Amino acid sequence: MKNRLIKAISLGLLLSAYSINIQAQSVDNTQKMEWFKKAKLGIFIHWGIYSVNGISESWSFFNNYINYDNYMKQLNGFSASQYHPEQWTRLIKESGAQYAVITTKHHDGVSLWNSKADKAITVPGNTPAKKDVLSPFISDLKKSGLKTGLYFSLPDWSHPYYDVNTRTKKRYELKNDPKRWENFVNYYQTQLRELSSSYRPDLLWFDGDWEHTSDEWRAPQTLNLLKEYNPNIIINSRLNSHGDYDTPEQGIPVTAPQNPYWELCYTMNDSWGYQPYDNNYKTPNMIIRTLADVISMGGNLLLDIGPKSDGTIPEKQVEILKNLGRWTLKNKDAIYETEQGIPFENYRGKSALSASKKSLFLYLEEAKSFTRIYGLDSRPVSAKIIGDERAVVKVDYDADKTATLYFPEAKFDKDVTVVELTFDTPPIFLKNSKQKAQLTDILERKNSQLASYEIADQLHLGNNLLNNTGLTGDGLDMTIKKTARTNSETLQWISKHAEALFETGKGLPGGYYSGMSALSKDRQTLYLFVEGTPNGPIALKGIKNSIARIRIVGEGTLISHSVYNKLYWSETPGIVYIDVPEDRLDKNMTVIAVLLDKPLELYKGKVGAIESNL
Length: 614
Description:
- It holds the Pfam family Alpha_L_fucos.
- Its EC number is 3.2.1.51.
- By secondary structure, the protein is an alpha/beta fold.
- A seven-stranded parallel β-sheet has the order 7-6-5-2-1-9-8. Strands 10-11-12-18-15 form a five-stranded antiparallel β-sheet.
- The longest helix is centred in the first third of the chain and has 31 residues, at 2-32.
- Residues 1-26 and 609-614 have low confidence and may be disordered.
C-alpha cells in the first residue's frame, strides 16, 4: 500500500512537472510569436537564375518544359549589375511591411551566398555576378529594423547526393543507398548552419518538405540546429509538422485557419519569380483589399516580388508596393497589432479589433451612406474615419442593440476606408440577436436605402419578407399591401429587383462574399447585394462552380468577370472579381445575378502548399 502511495505521489509530481513544462513552452511560444502576430505584412522575394530567361523557378526543368542543362545555362546571364539592396529595403519599408523573406536557395540548388557546403552551386562562384548577393541585403534589412526571413528549399534537384532529379527521373532509392542520403542531409544542414551563423535570421521559411518524411529529413535535428543560433527562431509549417505557423498559398482562405498564427503567401501576378510576359497583375486596389481580408481573419500577408536578373524590380511591382505604403501609413492603427475581427453575423463585412479590444475597425470597400453592426451589447463612445479628421460619423444605437453608422460628409479612400469605433471596455457581441422585421414597417421607412438594405439583410439570413405578399416573379402586377405611409421608391426597388426577391432563400455563409446575398430556389443563381459605389470589382471566394454569365438584375446588362489564383491542378477555387459599371449602379442597392453551371457548391477545404506545378 505504501509503495502504491509513493508511486502515486511520484506519478502526480511527474504529471504536475509535465503540465508546468507544457505551460512554460506555451508561454515561450506566445512570446516568440508576438512580433510575427503584430506584423501583418511581409514581402516575399523570389530571386535567382530563373529571372534570366523569365521562366518558372526550378519547376520548368523538373517538369521538362526545358531540359536541365539549358535551364542551368542561365547561370551565365545572372549579373546583378543594377542590384542596390538598400533600394530594395527602402521600398519594402515604404510598403509598410514589417519583415522580408528572400529565397536563399530554391529547388534548383543555386545559392545566393558563398556556400562552402560540398558540391554547392553558388551565385558568387558560378555566375557573372561573382559576389554574395544575399549578405548586403540581409545587413541592410537588419539596419532598417525589419525582421529577417530566409526561404530555404529542402529539396535540391541539382545536387548529386539528392535522390530526386525531375518528375520522371530519380538518382537512387534511399533504401538502396542510405549513405548517399546521409551525405545530402549533412549538405543541407551545413548550408543551414552557414545561414544561421552568418545572418541570425528571425524566421526560416522552408519549402518542399513533401518529398520526404520528417525522419528522412532529420527534421527534429534540423530544428535543434537552428535553435543553437536563435532559440526564438520562427519556423513556417513546411518542416513536416515542426513549424510554428500555417502558410496557405495563393488561395485566400474563406475562413481563418485554426492555427492562431498564419500567413498567406501571395503573388502580384501569376508568377513567383520574374516573368516578362506575365502581365496578369492584380490591381493595387485588389492587393489592399486582400490585405484587409487577411487582417480581418487575424493573419499576415506575405506579398511576393520577383526582381529581374540585373537586380531591378519591375515597375508594376514598385507601383503596387508604393500604393500599399500609402494605405498602410494612413491606416497603421488599424493594421499592426490588431486581432481577428467580429463574426459575419454581427457585421456584413471585414473588421478587426485592436489589441486592447477597445477599438473596432471596419474596412469599407465602397463609398456608401451607412453601415450596420448587429448584436452590439455596448454603446460606442466615439466613431471616426481614419485619415479624415473632418469627417462626421453619426451613430444611431437602438433598443435591438443595432448600431447604424451614417457617413454624411465622408472622404472615402480610393481603396479601403477604415472606420474606427471606440469603447470604454471591450464590447460584447451577441449571437443571433437580430429581431425579425415586419415588411409593413420596412415599407413605411422614409429612407428607401435603409429599407432596401433591411429587405436584403433579412433575405440573406433566410427570412424572405416578400414570400406570400403579392410579389410576382417579374415585379409586374404586384399586390403587396400598401398603406398611406408606404414609400413608393422602396416599392419601385422591389419591383425592379423582383427576380432576386421572389421565392429566393438564404445567402452565402460568412467569408465567401463581403456583403449580403441570396440564392434562387434551384440554387443555381447567386444574387449579390452591392452597397453604395464599390472602389473596385466585387470579389467572391470559395465558389467551386463555373460561371455561365453575370448580369445586373432589373436591367439585364451583362458584365465581365476575371478569375485570379486558380491553379488548374488544384481543387482550391480562384477569386472571382466582378466589374460593376458605376453608371449602372442603383442608388438604393444594386443586385448582381451570377448564373452558375449547376447548383452552388462551396469550397470548405484547407488552402495548402503547392506540391505540384505542372
